[in-house]
Structures are given as structure tokens and as C-alpha cells.
Fold:
Amino acid sequence: MLQRELLYAAMGTGFTCLATVLGAAMVFCFRKDMSHLTQKVFLGFAAGVMTAAAVWSLLIPAMEMAEAAGGGILLPVGGGFVLGGACLMLLDGLLPHLHIGSDRPEGLAAHWKRTTMIVLAVTLHNIPEGMAVGLSFSVAAQDPAPGALAGAVALAIGMGLQNFPEGAAVSLPMKAQGVGSGKAFLCGAASGVVEPIFGLLTVLIAGSVTGIMPWVLSFAAGAMIYVVVEELIPEAQLGEHSHAGTISVMTGFLIMMLLDVVLG
Structure:
């Protein structure tokens, strides 16, 4: 059964990783960097998708699993959610990284190249995404009902939709800063590789401990919400009230919600 779960998780996270790679490949098609407005729209869309996914694809299934196991909901779901946010907060404070459009690195001081720290910033976003997609496909592998796989596919599609512009958002600014097209593409593509890695690792951990799945699902949800609130929404607003950023958040939320409800 574990082999089946890993296979499903590899297919799901492989798709989302491919979406990032294809987005990074836009560096070969466009000469100019993204406009600030375009970046706002993409970041807001990603925030909306991740928020909806955290609720419908992670927290609600975690509650249902905890209830089916005959235990309480509050501890595994609430505790996992808090732990997920705390873990990302710790990584955010320790891992040296640099957000696109910023000149001030975050995390511990390190004399790393600018391109390396930009890739690490996007990698932080992709860790909970990989966990979420991997876990959803792992659950689908255990559940014979067609709705389980459809829900996992809906999540992968939603994540893929926001990963495509995310890959471009790494490679295009790098090219605009003088980095070669090939290197900029590799950096953008590398930011998505973390998704299958953490997706498969999470499935291995969840499959080795009985009753841990509600904890892990809610952990991924907490990590995603931390990324949304700490990074994506502030960057989508970019220091001012932005209707474009707000509308894109709502659009991303609506699309991910509809994908999960209709397909799941």
C-alpha cells in the first residue's frame, strides 16, 4: 500500500513541479521582467489558491479523519495547524533568503549569492505545497472512492496554476538583473524540485506512524497559511491598497474552491 501511496504522491507533486519548470522556461520567450502589477496579480492569485486549499483539501479532511478515528478533533487539527505555522516561522527566521524585489535578506546572516537566496525564498513557499499535494494523493491511494482521487487532482491543478507564474516570477527578474537565460531558468526550475522531495518525505513519515495523518494534514495547512499571511498577501499589496492584488486573491480562492467542490 505504501508503494501505491508513494507512486500517487510522485505523480501529483511531479505535475506541480513541472508547472514550475514550464513557468521558469518563460525566460526564453520574454526579454523583459514582469511588471509590478503582474507580480501583484500572480502573488495574490497564489495566496487565494493556497488559502482555499488549506481549508478544503487539508483542514476539512483532517477533521473528518480525526472524527472517524474516534478521537477528538481539537488536538490533532488545532495542534498540527499551530505546529505547521511555527515550523515555517522557524525556517523563515533561520534560512537565509531574499524576496524578489527586495534588497534586504532575511534569516541568519550568510555570504551567499543573491540568486541562491532568491531561490531559497521561493523554496520556502513550495515546501508546504509539496506536503499538501503529496498527502492528498496519498489519501486518494488509500480511498477507493473516485471522489478522493478527484479531490487530489483538483488540488494539483490549483497548485499547478499558481506554480506556473511562480516559476516565471523567479527566472524573469533574474534575467532582468543580468543573469544568463540558462542559469535563470535552472534557478526557477530548482525552486519547484522541493515539492516532490517534501511530498514523498511527508508521505513516508505519515505512513510509518498510525493515526498521524490528521496531524500532518493540518501541519501542512498551518504552514501554507503562514506563507500566505507572512509573504504573499503583503507582497501582493506592495505597500499600498491594491484592487488588483485583492481581486486576484479572491479569484484564486474562488477557482481553488470550485475545483475542489466540483471535482472532489
The helical segments are 2-24, 36-68, 74-94, 114-142, 146-176, 181-208, 213-237, 243-263. Residues 36-68 form the longest helix (33 residues). The chain has one domain: 2-26+36-263.
